[in-house]
Specification:
The chain has 367 residues and is an all-alpha fold. Helix content is 66%, strand content 2%. The protein folds into two domains: 29-203 and 218-267, Cytochrome Bc1 Complex, Chain C (Up-down Bundle), CATH 1.20.810; 275-366, no CATH class. The protein contains 16 helices and two strands. It is globular and about 65 Å long. The relative contact order is 0.13. Heme b b566 binds at residues 96, 195.
Length: 367
């Protein structure tokens, strides 16, 4: 106890993980933030070990993935942990954001804005990683998504050629994507530290949304036990997926080496991008689709400035509570539509659900 209080480094750790004053009414929905931190470390460590065997060359990258899966000791496990870990990371992040929306965490402006920045950086990192295996879906996803920048007036084509490193997706593109995919997780880690700093500066919220300064408990053992229990349950679920259904989130097209002359029947991103992909393809105009795609995530930045309710928690706003669950259902429907082919009735439904997605944000602001 004396050492923990006297040593400067141990004192910082103790104040963050042991003696941190926390509201006494936090539920298990507050576990997902710490789970995200653990999964970020899982992604960084598994990615580092995979990078030892990966070659960022269009002639070798697909073969190095096969080499890792077949020849490297436990390489198959590392790969499925890293691939499925990305899906689990976004699942946890979306639940974490949903909890923040429901309980009014956007009131803590700096914490919320840094969290949205982490979401954007995570999306960029995940997209770059999806391209690296250089399978059919990787190649065509890179071609389609990078081409969206050409919609920017005047400089769009120049930006696309700079990202490609030429006039088509090729070896310079893969090399750049690998470099950024390696660097960005450490930028995310820095942002997570900043996020935690802002969180500890203001303190955690609570389900009721009231000030809980008069009723707080130390983080350990009240919430450290909850976190450990949450880690155990979720890791059992995660490892069951990795061992029993390791390729459940992977597209079969990506098990075929890339071929610029053969276009897949249905190009689609990973499941955690499908809601934004539906919004993109639902707008007839290319520039309009790109703007809607960007705004589908950027809109989260505006919540702290427009949602100025007297009580933080949605619990006290019955209409907003029902709108929130309607928003969740609509988001799930957008994700489902994104995995469907672009034909009737899915195209029309995508337009309707995309309109509802943005309209619900306006409804939140007007209540």
């Amino acid at each position: 106890m004396v050492i923990r209080k006297s040593d400067h480094l141990l004192k910082i750790i103790s104040n963050s993980l042991v003696d941190l004053a926390s509201p006494s009414s936090l539920s298990y929905f507050w576990n997902f933030g710490s789970l995200l931190g653990v999964f970020l470390m899982v992604q960084i460590l598994s990615g580092l070990f995979l990078a030892f065997h990966f070659s960022g060359d269009v002639m070798l990258s697909f073969d190095t993935i096969i080499h890792m899966m077949r020849d490297v000791n436990n390489g198959w496990l590392l790969r499925v942990i890293h691939a499925n870990g990305a899906s689990m990371f976004f699942l946890l992040m979306y639940i974490h954001i949903g909890r923040g929306l429901y309980y009014g965490s956007y009131r803590f402006k700096k914490t919320w804005l840094s969290g949205v920045t982490i979401l954007l950086l995570s999306m960029a990192t995940a997209f770059l990683g999806y391209v690296l295996p250089w399978g059919q879906m990787s190649f065509w996803a890179a071609t389609v998504i990078t081409n969206l920048l050409s919609a920017i007036p005047y400089v769009g084509t120049l930006m696309v050629e700079w990202i490609w490193g030429g006039f088509a997706v090729g070896n310079p593109t893969l090399t750049r994507f690998f470099a950024f995919h390696f660097i960005l997780p450490f930028v995310i880690l820095f942002m997570v530290i900043l996020h935690l700093f802002f969180l500890h500066e203001t303190g955690s919220g609570n389900p009721m949304g009231f000030s809980s300064n008069c009723d707080k408990v130390s983080f350990h053992p009240y919430y450290s036990i909850k976190d450990v229990y949450g880690f155990g349950c979720f890791f059992i679920f995660f490892m069951m997926i990795c061992i029993m259904s390791p390729y459940i989130f992977m597209d079969v097209e990506n098990f075929i080496s890339s071929d610029p002359l053969v276009t897949p029947v249905h190009i689609q991103p990973e499941w955690y991008f499908l809601f934004a992909y539906t919004i993109l393809r639902s707008i007839p105009s290319k520039i309009g689709g790109v703007v809607a795609l960007v705004m589908s995530v950027i809109v989260l930045y505006f919540l702290p400035f427009f949602l100025e309710h007297k009580f933080r928690s949605t619990y006290f706003y019955y209409i907003m509570k029902y709108l929130f669950w309607l928003f969740i259902i609509n988001w799930l429907l957008l994700t489902w539509i994104g995995a469907c082919v672009v034909e009737y009735p899915f195209s029309e439904l995508g337009m309707v659900f995309s309109f509802i997605y943005f309209y619900l944000y306006i409804m939140f602001w007007s209540i």
